[in-house]
Structures are given as structure tokens and as C-alpha cells.
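It would be a great kindness if you could assist me with a short task in structural biology. A protein sequence and the C-alpha cells that stand for its backbone fold form the material at issue. I should value your view on which stretches of the chain appear to form regular backbone elements. The record follows directly beneath this note.
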Amino acid sequence: MNSDTVLRLFQKGFHVTIGATAMLIEVLQDPQRREQNLSKLKLELDQLAQEWAEKGEITEQEARSFVEIFLDQRRNVSDRAASETTVTTIATPVVPPSTEVLELQELTAQLAAIRAELAHLREQKEL
């Protein structure tokens, strides 16, 4: 935004403020003018409200349509992915827990024997 645009924006705001103040003074001084201005303002607000309501309705319909299209696309992608997915099962032998426990106990015993042998070799080496 350049400085010329900013200056015009401030000038317009200033003019709107002065115009609104002048209209307020006129309304306060002349009761007939007050009624005219209030009815004009009410009519304009009613028209604006009607336009906004119509615009809101159109926007709501567009948003609903967009969301439905988006959700349909996501469903189609997930349906395609589900139908194309291949499940591969690899069979592994099931070992009863008791066999695993026995193997673990054997390994523990072997480890203890190795430690004892290492300790015995260290003692011999020190002598």
C-alpha cells in the first residue's frame, strides 16, 4: 500500500466523520429531517440485511458442496486403498513358553560356567 492510497483512505475517513457529524446535527435540530433520515437509514439497513442474507445462503450452499466433494474424494481414495491393499502373513513357529524358559536357563548356566572358568584362569595367571 503506497502513501497516496493511505492518504486517500484517511481523507475519506475524515470526510465520512464530518458528514456523519453534520447529519447528526441536522437530525437533532429538525425533527422532520430526523424521521426522514432514520427511515432512510432503516430502509438501507433492511436492504443490506436482505442482500447479506442472500449472499450468506449462497455461500453456505457453496461451502456445503465443497465439503461434500472433499469428503467423497477422501472416501473414494480410502476405498481404493483398502481394495488394493494386500495382506501378507508370515508364519512363524510357535514355541511353547516352557521351551524358551528351558533354553534361557541353559544359556544362564553356560554363562555362569564361562565366568567361573575365566575367574579360575585369572587366578592361575596371577600365581
